[in-house]
Description:
CATH class of the largest domain: Alpha Beta
Bound molecules: flavin-adenine dinucleotide, succinic acid
Amino acid sequence: MKTQLLIIGSGVAGLTLAIKYAEAFPKKNVIIVTKGNEDESNTKYAQGGVAVVLDDKTDSFQKHIKDTLISGDGLCDKAIVDMVITEGPKRLRELMLWGAQFDLDPTGNLDLGREGGHSEYRVVHYKDITGYEIERALLARVHQLENITLLEHHFAIDLITEHQLNQTTENTTCFGAYILNQKSGEILTLQADSTVLAAGGIGRVYGHTTNPMIATGDGIAMAYRAKAIIKDMEFVQFHPTALYTNQEGSAFLISEAVRGFGAYLRTKSGTRFMPNYDARAELASRDIVSQSIDSELKISGDSCVYLDCRHLDVEAFKNHFPNIYQTCLENNIDIAKDWIPVVPASHYLCGGIEVDSHGKTSITNLFACGECSRTGLHGANRLASNSLLEALVYAHNIYKYHCENPISKVNRELPDWNDEGTSIPKEHVLIQHNLKELQALMRDYVGIVRSNDRLNKAILHLDVIYNEVETLYKTSKVTTTLCELRNMVNVAHLIIGQSLKRKENKGGYFNVDNL
Ligand code: FAD
Ligand code: SIN
């Protein structure tokens, strides 16, 4: 198969780019491959909203820029922060033109919420299911455009570069990707003039996460194996308030917007502890709130802290957060009377594939946008609701780059996927064992608070898992679960390795040996 533009991923980043490119170049083809159902993505679960400066009476670009820089703890790229934030309103209007709905206030203006680290109300939202609405609107537009082919249940295994052609080069070029049709088992050689990784985050590397099953870091791992520059992987963001249950795995998020709405954090004994840690109390940035909760839990030995919403207007709460209200009820929590038990959970990766302001990676004809990319916007800790914004802006920048710099056709004979000497693995259970071990390792040794000793132990354990998984990979017919596990091992290696290199605590990175 051949295409002008191959996009890997159908979240906000991939879909936005596909629409813009397909509208501008009706004679060119776009192929989107996505490994699950078309809407399955981190985007679909976004709650709080999109941070944009709209109210110029109280807010300003300067204030949003300042909040982003403070949250990033000195490691943001100021020029990128300026660019993304000033582009925000235009990109939001475009999204609305494609049909995305957002809540209005009683005067008919967009209703603005507030979250941790924001000095003003500036988060545009649709109830507490903003991502669901964005994904719905983007997919509806994608399906109207005839030059976009969206292939669901198609898993990108690896990028195609000179490596597959057995050539050596100083300057790697991407020629497309090998794609597994997850239903038929066939592996396609998909040749593309331009390839874009929009494959999202890494939450599943930690067992306890707000992310859905698709967030296995595939885009970052593929880029890493192709030798792209990967940066800032130590900055894993833990969301402070995931609903606490006894179950492992996906954790339901209680949006930071609930604290923006006035909820308090309390220990089991009832103490409101955040004012002791930061003058912004519950609305301190996410790294500070997560680290404070971690510290409280270590002192008390409790399993969770609590969000207290009892003093809030219940009807207004239900109206603003219907999904959270309902999910709490299903867990026997009536927010009018009960506290919500919460714990931090892995949520977002601030680092990823390094890109310039056009979304270009260090590999020719390979671009990246959205959560798998590292743009310089977030620094050491992302400001809440800046992620959807970043994805919209970088999808636009990649599109603009293609308008101004047409990419020439790839004309190469690309080899088909070679699976000689491989067979169907006899024991799939090994993959599950290795995954559990990996997730336990990341949770126990590479969590919110790290130490050199734990990180070094983590490397040793990871090497054992790595060797087992590589052996399995080299001798097995590829499956989605095996490839995902391999990718998560690569991502874990990057997180631990880059953690050990950081000698100063910043934002979401906290190592007791750096004190
Ligand atoms: P995603 O939306 O994750 O999409 C990635 C796509 O790539 C998926 O379609 C996936 O199936 C596909 N894919 C991955 N690997 C492969 C492969 N190997 N082959 C083929 N396809 C592949 N951010 C905000 O700004 N505001 C919020 O309110 C907010 N709330 C959030 C709430 C939750 C619960 C979560 C989990 C995140 C939240 N975030 C929020 C973060 C934000 O949602 C994500 O960072 C953003 O949606 C990422 O978009 P994306 O397009 O980069 O990736
Ligand atoms: C939330 O609603 O708390 C998540 C916001 C984000 O991750 O930006």
